[in-house]
Amino acid sequence: MTFIRIILLNLFLFISLPVSALCSKGPDFVRTELDAWGVGLGLGTVNVSSLAIHPVGTPLGANIVTFANNPRYRGPESILWVCDIADKNNIFEIISTNGDDRNGGFFDLGAADGYPNYYSTLFSHVGLRLTHVNSGTVFTRQYQRIPMKNYGLSADGTKIFIRVKDFSPIRADLIRISSVSLFGKAPSDYCGKKYQITTGAYTCDQPNGYVSFCSPNSPATYCDSGDSAYDFNGWWKDNWMAINMGNATIPGANLVSRPTCVAKSVTPIVMFPTISITDLNNGQSAQSHFDVRVLCEGLSNSGTVQGMTALGLQVPYDSYLAAKQLNLVNASGGVSHLLPANYGQPGVAGGVGIRIANANSGVLRNFLGWYHCQSGTCLTGNNGGWYAVRDGATMVSSGGAHGISEYAVNFNAYLTRIAGQTVTAGKVDASAQVLVKVQ
Asked: Fewer CB within 10 Å: N-end or C-end of the chain?
């Protein structure tokens, strides 16, 4: 009899251990799963012009946001969840589109055009793809579980703090697609639009995607799995965070249809001559040249005010974050210097960056950063990195079958010392992308 009691006691202790490590809501927890409470994608003006200038697959806009951009949170250090240290390998982000809604993530319309995971939106012929930046995982209707590598620790090291800043940034990309979503074929259509809109503001606050926090065995952090179109039990647990194209606190997207320009080509590789640390410290720079070719419809307007078409060169997101650390990002979001990839890492030149100028005027230009729409406005103008698309351009050819002309915009690039920084020897390998967009 005594022998049996000992076995039962040991068994009880064994099965109770896994559930002793639990996650619970933190002191700064705020619900953001409801439609109007999500983080806005801040995509600004989305222009869809003729098929001649915007064929299927054409990029129409992109942005990267973090959950700290949501004003419902106090800031990036806000503690949303608290877990035992034993759970450090048992904490996850779960991502999915808003799969049950017709224009929130049910229809993968891009797949038929060869662009999978671009889901229908309220905008007709505009598909949205969401990407979990830290892992590179693309959102789908199927829930995907991604291990969390970032977290804070309590002073005694016994607790894990999951802060707003520990969740991955989210990238949004828009392209033109050939088809439209089908009314009545999705489980829900909360915005009640029988047809998608062809112009106007993104008035639907129904989310386009969700991120949730998950720790198995913790009742407060339900771990969804399966198809989000039909399974969404975690939504009722309040541990989801919504992502919205339309949002009242961050300017939502606005669809227009105006004649415009597009980037045709750019010099693929810009080579700089070798330059010494001494020369850089003495104010000298290494110089090179590149050009951008753009195609413009005959009625397009070149400028940086609303409704006109502008051109900018955008730095990669990692370069943008590094530039912010060096105070190279101005109040309008423009970036003065393009930094080498992996800036600060061994073998990479330090204290140097790349500046650009229009070769016609010689005036230095800002690069575009990220997150252009915030605090009630979308950032535009030269300070933000936008310049009239035909500023300093030379016409290469005019007219054509669709009345589209080609222009060349010539640039000078300078590898130069960053003021206040110490120059260190190393490799300089940097990239930027050309954006042409209706403001």
From this structure: N
Strands 373-374 and 377-378: antiparallel
Instruction: Report the half-sphere exposure of 386 (CA within 13 A, side-chain side).
Output: 21
- The helix or strand, by DSSP H or E, that contains position 128, with its residue range, turns out to be strand 126-132
User: Which pair of structure tokens corresponds to residue 314?
Assistant: 């955008």
Mean pLDDT, consecutive 10-residue stretches, the chain (439 aa), reads: 28 35 90 89 94 97 93 94 94 97 97 98 97 98 97 96 98 97 92 88 92 91 95 89 82 91 96 96 96 96 95 97 96 95 94 97 95 66 95 90 91 97 95 96
Q: How far apart are the first and last CA of the chain?
A: 82
Q: Which spans in 236-375 are helix H?
A: 277-281, 317-325
Which backbone phi and psi does 341 adopt, to 5 degrees?
-60, 140
Exposure letters 102-125 (e unless 16+ CB within 10 A, then b): bbbbbbbbbeebebebbbbbbbbb
Q: Decide: 160 and 230 in contact? Cβ < 8 Å.
A: no
